[in-house]
Amino acid sequence: MPRLLIAESAALRQPHEIASDVSRPSARDVNELLHIVVEADTAACVEYLQSRRSRGMQLETVYLGLLAPVAHRLGLMWERDELSFIDVTVGLARLQSLVHELTSDSCYGALNQDATRRIVLATARNEQHAFGLLIVAEFLRLAGWEVDGGPDVESGAPLIRMVGQEWYAVVGLSVGFEEHVDATRADIGKVRARSRNPKVGILTGGAAFSRDPSHAERMGADALARDGREAVAKAEALRSACA
């Protein structure tokens, strides 16, 4: 579990460029939310985000400019012994609750009018609870994608069963540790063999590629995405290729 937290932090270390937003968050905003996530409760976190949203802060900015940096800071603080493992675990759980709260406020229920815009997300084996994957899922849904799976689905038997039962344009895989690249490569081979879509695209991301992006190609993936916004662009390209 501690290694999962370190990987989660590494996956969010690269700075994200935020689209033009009149309410772009500052370092103070990130520090304020971090304090609330650690010291208060989920209700206080929701209230804080609602105040920022009422000022016109876009969802994309909330995800990339607030939630991702806070998750990154939690991981760093655990590595530096500034927070206990329980503190960080509770903090990440509250961040996940915030994502779900924002999901309930989003209006994308009828956006997907293209039956080919379907993706299933999963983590590498033994790498559940990937907060970054939750953010990727939200970006895809906001872009009109139908999203199945998520942090609770692993790249082994559960994912292989899903692609054998349903048609997906893209399979998205989050890999946190470099030592899991080879095992995930074997799973990708099985996914391609069992997929109802013979041209299924494989999209990947995660901390395993922070130091060496070429792992993605070696693993057998078709594309690598660093964040939710890039994941949407890469998924669209893969969907077009399989049409």
Write the layout of secondary structure elements.
Blueprint: H1 2-11, H2 27-39, H3 42-54, H4 59-79, H5 85-105, E1 118-123, H6 131-142, E2 146-154, H7 157-165, E3 170-174, H8 181-194, E4 201-205, H9 214-219, E5 223-224, H10 228-242
Helix pairs in contact: 1-4, 2-4, 3-5, 4-5, 4-6, 5-6, 6-10, 7-8
Overall number of strands: 5
Please state the average pLDDT score.
Answer: 84
Number of helices: 10
Shape verdict? globular
Report helical residue fraction.
55-70%
Low-confidence stretches: 14-22
How much of the residues is beta strand, in percent?
5-15%
Helix/strand/pairing class, anyone? alpha/beta
Q: What descriptive keywords fit this protein?
A:
243 residues; alpha/beta
Structure in words:
The chain is an alpha/beta fold and 243 residues long. The chain is built from 10 helices and 5 strands; from the N terminus they run αααααβαβαβαβαβα. It has a 5-stranded parallel beta sheet, sandwiched between helices. Strand 4, helix 9 and strand 5 (223-224) form a beta-alpha-beta unit. Helix 3 (42-54) crosses helix 5 and helix 7 (157-165) runs parallel beside helix 8. The chain is globular, with a radius of gyration of 17 Å. The N and C termini lie far apart (40 Å).
What's this, in brief?
The chain has helices spanning 2-11, 27-39, 42-54, 59-79, 85-105, 131-142, 157-165, 181-194, 214-219, 228-242, and strands at 118-123, 146-154, 170-174, 201-205, 223-224.
